[in-house]
Automatic annotation (TrEMBL):
<dbReference type="InterPro" id="IPR050519">
    <property type="entry name" value="Glycosyltransf_28_UgtP"/>
</dbReference>
<dbReference type="Pfam" id="PF04101">
    <property type="entry name" value="Glyco_tran_28_C"/>
</dbReference>
<feature type="domain" description="Diacylglycerol glucosyltransferase N-terminal">
    <location>
        <begin position="92"/>
        <end position="241"/>
    </location>
</feature>
<comment type="similarity">
    <text>Belongs to the glycosyltransferase 28 family.</text>
</comment>
<dbReference type="Pfam" id="PF06925">
    <property type="entry name" value="MGDG_synth"/>
</dbReference>
<protein>
    <submittedName>
        <fullName>Monogalactosyldiacylglycerol synthase</fullName>
    </submittedName>
</protein>
<dbReference type="InterPro" id="IPR009695">
    <property type="entry name" value="Diacylglyc_glucosyltr_N"/>
</dbReference>
<dbReference type="InterPro" id="IPR007235">
    <property type="entry name" value="Glyco_trans_28_C"/>
</dbReference>
<dbReference type="GO" id="GO:0016020">
    <property type="term" value="C:membrane"/>
</dbReference>
<keyword id="KW-0808">Transferase</keyword>
<dbReference type="GO" id="GO:0016758">
    <property type="term" value="F:hexosyltransferase activity"/>
</dbReference>
<dbReference type="GO" id="GO:0009247">
    <property type="term" value="P:glycolipid biosynthetic process"/>
</dbReference>
<keyword id="KW-0328">Glycosyltransferase</keyword>
<feature type="domain" description="Glycosyl transferase family 28 C-terminal">
    <location>
        <begin position="268"/>
        <end position="362"/>
    </location>
</feature>
């Protein structure tokens, strides 16, 4: 029992009023997100869910505090605490986001992972072939066995040090090895996989033995059942995007003025993902040469070479261009835009849908992004336009005065979007945690070992 016969025991994890001041709960639950920084999408997903959980926690604490204010009546000698019996404060959540290969692996595995960015820029077709060849359970198990000696001990140390109450994977290559380490630890920590591929899903996402799997589409769930995963463990919730996409924090006019945008001139946002892939350079030149009545917002991401090349031609362009590197204010940029030109990254697609942006896909990474093209076109929210001329023609169709195509695609985008997916995923993750009146699994193990 969390309470002693004399009243509230020292171990009870509940907030309470003392002299009118609310004391913060001492109960903490730790949520460990595992990822690999191959592209920005996986970290973005972890950050989105983590931020949503933080907001859910704040809301939960606010409701509890208000409930305490209503229930607790001042007495002559101070506050009565009897109403706290069987009333627990929500726990605080410690969010840990770890790049497993960077923090837990050793040579040569760590260096091999770093080849991802140059591969998708210089040889995307090679990446596509590798994706297909590895998209079999036998190949995944073989790769896991091969890489295990270079990462297993580091991952074991990470878990033992952090003592997570739940582990959430947002990257496919980590799932088999993580479940192996959990079995060796002997602590039944819940393990949840959040799939960040929309349609072209890799079999490595669905390692048998996870507590649950969160997928963004029905197609992804169908793939999981083909791989033998119990359908009751697979939940179609959506792809997590940052809570900033669900709430307007700044006025669009203020953002436009700060950037120096020309009023009433359509804004085209060009994005190449975290690595700046997708043929942005040729797209910018084609739009400029066509002298389209638009202004451009170009996000080069981490691609410094692309940023430099665009900077060199900036003064010669026939359209206004605002050039960015890796940005943290993508919600602002999307809200003030009329159309987005992007490669077929799942995160950017879902963020654009939440903002009601028609999508022009200018490229994709063969393999994981191949199915996203059909997803965009089938749902009538955009098209694939890989050639510069096709991009220009589609912009003309969308932005010509009186066009019905632009509002039609906006409506389809908003209808298809799941802007609150991060919150729903956060609630699902929290549902796996121990109740506030119970110790963590790690504490239970220590008690059990002390009695042995």
């Amino acid at each position: 029992m969390p309470f002693s016969e004399e009243g509230i025991s020292p171990s009870v994890v509940a907030d309470f009023w003392e002299g009118g001041a609310l004391l913060v709960s001492t109960l903490q639950r730790t949520i460990l997100f595992l990822l690999a920084d191959t592209g920005a999408g996986h970290r973005s997903a972890a950050n989105a869910i983590g931020s949503a959980i933080t907001l859910l926690s704040q809301e939960e604490h606010a409701r509890w505090s208000e409930s305490m204010r209503r229930e607790m009546q001042p007495s002559v000698d101070g506050y009565e605490y009897g109403c706290l019996i069987d009333t627990f404060s929500p726990p605080n959540y410690r969010i840990e986001i770890v790049d497993v290969f960077e923090q837990c692996s050793r040579f040569p595995l760590r260096e091999i992972v770093k080849l991802y960015a140059p591969m998708i820029r210089l040889s995307p077709q090679l990446h596509g072939k590798f994706f297909q060849q590895m998209n079999h359970e036998a190949m995944v198990k073989a790769a896991t066995a091969l890489g295990s000696p270079f990462i297993q001990s580091g991952l074991h140390h990470l878990m033992s040090n952090i003592e997570p109450d739940i582990i959430v994977s947002v990257h496919p290559v980590l799932n088999y090895i993580t479940l192996q380490v959990l079995r060796k630890l002997g602590v039944p920590i819940p393990f949840v996989t959040v799939v960040t591929d929309l349609i072209s899903v890799h079999t490595a996402w669905f390692a048998p033995g996870a507590s649950g799997y969160v997928v963004p589409t029905e197609q992804a769930k169908a793939f999981s059942t083909q791989k033998g995963i119990d359908a009751s463990l697979v939940h179609v919730i959506g792809l997590p995007i940052h809570p900033q996409f669900t709430c307007t924090t700044k006025q669009e006019n203020d953002i436009s003025e700060r950037l120096g945008l020309i009023p009433h001139l359509p804004v085209v946002l060009l994005v190449g993902g975290g690595e700046g892939a997708g043929g942005l350079y040729t797209a910018v030149r084609a739009i400029s040469q066509a002298r389209l009545p638009v202004q451009l917002l170009v996000v080069a991401g981490r691609n410094e070479e692309l940023h430099t090349r665009l900077q060199r031609i900036r003064s010669r362009l026939q359209v206004p261009m605002h050039l960015f590197g890796f940005v943290e204010n993508m919600p602002d940029l999307m809200r003030i835009s009329d159309v987005i030109v992007t490669k077929a990254g799942p995160g950017t697609i879902c963020e654009a849908l939440a903002c009601g942006l028609p999508i022009i896909l200018c490229g994709h990474i063969p393999g994981p992004e191949s199915g996203n093209i059909a997803f965009v076109e089938h749902n009538a929210v955009g098209i694939l336009a890989q050639r510069p001329r096709e991009i220009v023609d589609e912009l003309r169709r969308l932005l010509q005065p009186g066009s019905l195509l632009l509002p039609h695609r906006r409506e389809n985008a908003l209808r298809l979007s799941r802007p609150h997916a991060a919150f729903a995923i956060g609630q699902y993750i929290l549902s796996h945690l121990p109740p506030p009146d119970q110790p963590s699994l790690w504490q239970r193990r220590r008690v059990s070992e002390s009695k042995a």
